[in-house]
């Protein structure tokens, strides 16, 4: 009897899962398609059938994160005031960073991933929109630095391996509180 063949979507998910495990262990640059194939017990051609390159796998891994961030930007853009838009954006950033914290932890310091994000307009446009919306209409140094601290702080904190024991609800509460306090503090200083 012939062995049942997995659906293509299932095979793609298995490649992504194996790649993510190997990326976490070796980094993106040091992980080869052959290593992914070996991990799955398939040929390299089978991996190529699902993805044309390792970069395509990386993009597939980070795509859900950027889909969520894009949704956050769209929601924030519908808010009636700049303050409510910024608050919605920060809340959405926190939720996204927590929902994807394990994947983002693998990629947070990887230069290959940073280069791919810059190369893909749909990713770089979202990151620019986030920065613009958190900064607000006043593009002075204080607001730009505050916005950067909030974005970097949210993503850096949620992916910090020293904080892996902090549950999602606690992480959400503290990140929200700290972000709001930073905004208040910087607004009072201006």
Automatic annotation (TrEMBL):
Keyword Disulfide bond tagged: no
Domain of life: Bacteria
InterPro entries in the record: Homeodomain-like_sf, HTH-type_TetR-like_transc_reg, HTH_TetR
GO molecular-function terms, A-Z: DNA-binding transcription factor activity; transcription cis-regulatory region binding
Coiled coil region boundaries: none
Alphabetical keyword list: DNA-binding, Transcription, Transcription regulation
PANTHER family documented for this protein: HTH-TYPE TRANSCRIPTIONAL REGULATOR BETI, HTH-TYPE TRANSCRIPTIONAL REGULATOR RUTR
Name the UniProt record assigns to this protein: TetR family transcriptional regulator
Organism: Mycolicibacterium confluentis
